[in-house]
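The records we work with from here on pair a chain with its fold. A complete example follows; check for yourself that the lines match position by position.
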Amino acid sequence: MKTSKNYFSGFCFYEESELFDEYIIKNDFTISGFSYGAIKAFEEALNTQNRVDKVQLFSPAFFQNFDEKFKRTQLMYFKKDANSYVQTFLDNVIYPSNKDISKYFKLGTIEELEELLTYVWDEEKLQKLVDRGTIVEVYLGADDKIIDSLKVKEFFQKFATIYYIKEKGHLL
């Protein structure tokens, strides 16, 4: 299955949208993204001149609750041994499942990792999107080992419909 032009992939992922088939709304007026791709989907919805009825953010990359030392350490480990870093990352992404995601793998770049770690979700931008009439949906796994899903839920709850899914991780 080809990835929709309205879907944005996660860090180290490529054409993985089928993993979210049970949630994704596929039409010309919905933009979706997973993890790092959620940042891209949000920015696309915010900056496009096209009609956007809904934005679906699957396990959005949200690291503004982590300190600078954590972010520098992540970047340092990636630079030191990208393959080892990514293997640990992917193990945490699939937790608690044992899905084989190898066919969706694409080695990410240090620039992508830095962008996702330092991106700041802005409440004014979210409000601007909501004020335009765009519905924001955020899907979170309760057992996510990548992001703090409770912090993400707390941040987005005044702007979005939150789907907090028990016994699911980053891949939902």
Notes: Residues 4 and 21 are 12 Å apart (CA to CA). The longest strand covers residues 135-141.
